[in-house]
From TrEMBL:
Protein family according to the UniProt entry: Belongs to the eukaryotic/archaeal PrmC-related family.
Name by which UniProt lists this protein: Methyltransferase HEMK2
Nucleus found in the keyword field: yes
Gene Ontology biological process terms, A to Z: methylation
Species of provenance: Drosophila busckii
Protein location: Nucleus
Length: 221
């Protein structure tokens, strides 16, 4: 898969939007390694939650057929704008909307779901203190919400997992990025109780972090 260009985004943009880093590129590599599966799946509707600059969903949109609709959501309005600009700059078709997780999406219709959540372990107090207020959240709040994960770095991830049954289509798949401190084995067991099968699809050690990509499908698929 081709890594999208981002030179259209300025230093000012990166002050408001999460800049692609090792976690982003690991998720991109995981998708590339699983392209045979993805293309056989023939997804009609793909969604990236927390798209940031839009690099991941743009790369996917460029690779998949024109019959696939690619969507992106983010609670940061600057990220929604950046995602649209990245898709346009790279000749891809992506619709981006400001939304909390997948709350605006019709139930059980997402065939391919991407989520690089805020996974850094922080205190819940730090996360709570950064709650968005008003229509123009500050730069600091925009960026904190892209990485601060609360206790075990899983506050947002756990919310998504509880909603997963209502999000994925019957044959849908989730690619989820996790940090070792997020306790991926515990998450796998949690997903089993929710009637999902999760496997460690890819992992990578980088300075200061050990990252995993979980591939999650329904147990009946």
């Amino acid at each position: 898969m081709e890594t999208p260009h981002t030179e259209h985004l300025s230093a000012d943009d990166w002050e408001h939007v999460y800049e692609p880093a090792e976690d982003s590129f690991l998720l991109l590599d995981a998708l590339e390694a699983d392209l045979d599966f993805i293309e056989k799946l023939q997804p009609c509707l793909c969604l990236e939650i927390g798209s940031g600059s839009g690099v991941l969903i743009t790369a996917l949109a460029k690779r998949l057929s024109h019959n696939t609709l690619c969507l992106a959501t983010d609670i940061n309005p600057r990220a929604c704008i950046a995602t649209k600009r990245t898709a346009l700059h790279n000749g891809a078709r992506v619709d981006s909307m400001r939304n909390n997780l997948a709350s605006a999406i019709r139930k059980r219709c997402i065939d391919l779901l991407l989520f690089n959540p805020p996974y850094v372990v922080t205190s819940d107090e730090e996360l709570e203190s950064q709650r968005l207020t008003g229509e123009t959240p500050s730069t600091e709040r925009n960026l904190v919400y892209s990485w601060a994960g609360g206790m075990d770095g899983r506050r947002v991830t756990d919310i998504l997992l509880e909603q997963l049954d209502d999000i994925l289509s019957p044959s849908g798949v989730l690619y989820l990025l996790l940090l070792r401190e997020n306790k991926p084995d515990e998450i796998i067991k949690q997903l089993q109780k929710l009637n999902f099968k999760a496997v460690k699809h890819m992992e990578r050690r980088i300075p200061g972090e050990h990252l995993y990509i979980l591939k999650v499908t329904r147990t009946s698929f």
